[in-house]
Fold this protein.
Amino acid sequence: MSRILVVDDVPVPAVGHRPARISRMDNANVHGDGGGIRVHRMVRRGWLGGAVAIVGLVGVTAALLPMRGGLSLAGVTMLYLVPVVAAAVAGGVWPALVTAVAADLLLNFCFVPPYRTLAVESPGNVIVLVVYVLVAATVALAVDVAARARQLAEVDRLRSALLDAVGHDLRTPLAGIKAAVSSLRQPDVTWAPDDQAQLLATVEESTNHLVDLVENLLSLSRLRAGVLSADPRPVALDAVVAEAVLHVPGHDQVEVDVPDDLPLAVADPGLLQRVVANLLANAVTASPGGTPIQLRGRAADHQLRLEVIDHGPGLPAPDRERVFTPFQRLDDSSSMGLGLGLAIARGFTEAMHGTLTPSDTPGGGLTMTVTLPEAR
C-alpha cells in the first residue's frame, strides 16, 4: 500500500506530468553593465539638478531685479533659497551646493551696493552673504538627508515585505519537494510506476515554482536598481506570443488571436515574452477553471497592442494601479506567488518604451493591454 508523507501540514499535491521548461529569463537581456548604468543615472541627475538651478536662479533674479529698491537684503536671500532647495531635490547635494555659491554671487552682484560688482561696502552685508551660504548649504544637506531617509524607509518596507512573502512562498514548494523525496526514499515501500511518476512530477512542479520565484526576485532587483538593459528591435508579435504561451501553466485555456500579418513591433523579444507570460499566468490564476482567456493582437495608429482578456472577478478602479506594486496580492486566496508578476510586466514594458494599462472586460473581468511602437 502506497503512503505519501505530509511535511509541516503541507500534503504532496497530485499534479500531472509537466514538460521540462527552459527558463524564460534565458532570452531576456537583463544583465547589462550595472556600474555603468548607475554612473549614467548619477550624471543625468546631476545635469537635471544643474538645469533646475539655472532656471531657478534666472527666474528669481529676473523677478526681483525690478523691485530691487523696495526689498530688504534679508528678504531677497530667503527667496534665493528656493533654487537651492529645487536643485537639491532634482540633483542631490552637489548641484545644490554649487547653486548656493552661484546664488550668493548673484546676490552680491545684483542686490548688494555697489551694484554690478562683487565688492561689498557694508560689513553687515558681508555677514548676510556669508550666513546665506551657510544656511543654503545646510538646507541642501537637510533636503538630501531627507531624500536618503525616504529611500532607506522604502528599502526597509520592501525588505520586510520580501521576508514575509518569501518565507511563505519558499516554505510551500520546499515542503512539497521534501515530502515527495522522503516518500520515494522509504526503504519499506515499493512504489508503483504511476505513484513514482506522480511524486517526481511534484518535485518538478515545486522546483519550477522555486525557479520562477528566483527569476522574479532577480528581475525585481534589476528593475529597482535601474540596471535592466533592454534591446528593442523589430519583432513579430505572433512568434513571441507563441513562445510565451507554451511556458504558461494552463495554456490550454488561452485562445490566441494574433495575426501573422501584423506590422513588426519595436520590442526586446526576451522581455516581451516574459511580459506576456506573466500577464497570462495572472489571468489563469484569476479566471475560474476552464474559463477561456483571450490573447489578441491588433495594430492601430502606428502602435501594436496585445490584449490579455480574462473573465474573472476583475478589479475595482481604485485597485488597478496597486496591482503593479511589488509584493501586492489583492486576492490572498492564492497561496502561491510573491505578487511580483505584474510589477515586473510593467517594468519590462516601460523599459521597451511601451505601456501596460488595465481596464474592464465587457461582461466582467480584467483586460491588460500592452502597447508598443510600430517598427518603421
Notes: The first strand starts at residue 6 and ends at 7.
